[in-house]
Amino acid sequence: MRRAAALLLAALAAAPAALAPAPLAAQGWAARLGLDRLERLRRPVVVWGELAVVEHRVALGDEVEQATGPVPGIAAQASLTSWLDLRAAVRGGTLGADGAPAEERRMGELALAAEAIPLSWIAVVGGVSTRVYRTDFGRQRWTRLTIGPEVRTPLHGRFAGRVRVAAAPYVAVSDTRAPTRALEGAAAVTYESARLRASLAYSLERYDFEPAQGSRRLEQVSGLTASLGWRLGR
After folding, report:
1. What would the pLDDT profile of 197-226 be if each residue is shown by its tens digit?
2. Cβ contact 1:195 at 8 Å
3. Are residues 197 and 44 in contact, defined by beta-carbon separation less than 8 angstroms?
């Protein structure tokens, strides 16, 4: 996972210089995809692709199952007003077992979020997501509601930092009891020009369950995500 994380960091560092297209080339690219019409939108829309290295870990007593793999995705964010943004994302991939007794699992997720921005340096982010894990032995669905603050600060030039913490007051898991506590945190560095947007983010989700047969169950999902997007509209 460390090697994959290093590759993602190197790709992000080179993205602003290497991937920013010339104005004429960008216009041609947008026209070929039929996105030139979106340039007339009054409010901006950002569309981006992302690639995450995800680790899913389940600890039951002294036994730990861990699976890791690349998870690509696509997302879009729209500004409804000067203080409210909406975001949608879909992602999916295969997590390979890091060793026995873990199993290979396929993961898919759909997430929707709203960002209220009362001040330039802070936002309140609320979201709903559904995530599915599939193995050779079955299928498990997670549904979550999350809410929490996100602090934003400029770093240098066009680079900025973001730190977010959130609680999940509602989590439903198929075929098992819901966790007694669910917390989430994320930190990101972003680069943003007039049209180009790139970011590198690390996120961590933690779920605590009631002890079962004397064994405590903990579940954790972490990921390092690189994304590159293009801003459409005015």
Report:
1. 999 999 999 999 988 777 888 999 999 999
2. no
3. no
